Amino acid sequence: MTDTAPTDVSADQALKAKHRAMWASGDYPAIATEVVAPLGPVLAEACGITSGQRVLDVGAGTGNAAIAAALQGARVVASDLTPELFDAGRAAAEAQGATLEWQQADAEALPFGDAEFDVVMSCIGVMFAPHHHQAADELVRVAKPGATLGLLSWTPEGFIGQMFATMKPYAPPPPPGAQPPPLWGDEEHVQELLGHRVTDVRTERRALTVDRFGSGEEFRDFFKAVYGPTIAVYNFLAAEPERQAALDRDLAELGERYDQGGGVMDWEYLLLTARTV
Questions:
Q1: Domain that holds residue 33
Q2: Pick from 226, 227, 215: which is nearest to 257 by CA?
Q3: Any keyword Transferase (predicted)?
Q4: What is the CATH classification number for the domain harbouring 271?
Q5: Do the domain assignments include residue 161?
Q6: Is the pLDDT of residue 15 over 50?
Q7: Measured between alpha carbons, how far is 260 from 208 in angstroms, rounded to an integer?
Q8: Fewer CB in a 10 Å sphere around the end CB: N or C, the chain?
Q9: Which residues make Cβ contacts (< 8 Å) with residue 171, sequence separation at least 6?
């Protein structure tokens, strides 16, 4: 299914407000610090960021990748639809001695001019914008010719992709034109989004080793408490305790299925770098 640009402005604004509220719910900074913190430096390193470059992090969240880029001496803008996450990001940046700019921004309508940045990157961020082609168009638009584009996204087949697949039967139907976030972790899909506007495309599937959870139940309960998309599904099921219980079982079983022993799991992601034409 190919996404289409929303034609109803008010409906699109309502969708973005819903997304902002979803990511502001729970405690995403706990995910950022306790689970996915290593991913930001991985992406910054893959982008080859150097001192003085102007860097945009799209869907920056609390800034794991943006802070890593700033520590390389780059001039960094950390942008996100959900500014409620910025206070935790600012605290983390200050603790690490990083200086950067924080700006609220919709990944599908970035408030920046054409060809502004030497590096445009997103670490498990832009993948959650509902209209993939619009978001990809914006990534390319704000990048200078010859700029580096770097994307790190969960794969459909990996643990987080399978978590979304597990939740899908329990979730409300997506809005018209929206596409599943883990498609950004599919090489063919992302290369189709970017098309001939990029060259020197390199993709690699890697895994984040997670040893935070001692059992499938512990993983489920943590995500139920802190992760916006999971919280949203459980809220949707608020009046259906039997379906909530079924989702409880399914998520716990997913965690157990990926447990390699001793609570260690590998969460697969796609790392893509390219150069804009």
A1: 12-211+265-276
A2: 215
A3: yes
A4: 3.40.50.150
A5: yes
A6: yes
A7: 13
A8: N
A9: 232, 233, 236
**Which of 124, 93, 84, 90 has its CA nearest to residue 107?**
124
- CA 103 → CA 15, 58, 208, 260, distances in Å? 20, 10, 28, 40
Is 196 buried (19+), middle (13-18) or exposed (0-12) by CB count in 10 A?
Answer: exposed
Q: How many domains does the chain have?
A: 1
Structure tokens belonging to residue 98: 């990083």
How confident is the model over 75-90, as pLDDT tens digits? Answer: 999 999 999 999 999 9
| pLDDT digit string, tens, across residues 134-156 | 999 999 999 999 999 999 999 99
The single residue listed with the structure tokens 């502001």 is 24
Q: What is residue 75's three-state secondary structure?
A: strand
Euclidean distance between CA atoms 66 and 124, whole angstroms: 12
Residue 89 placed within a domain: yes
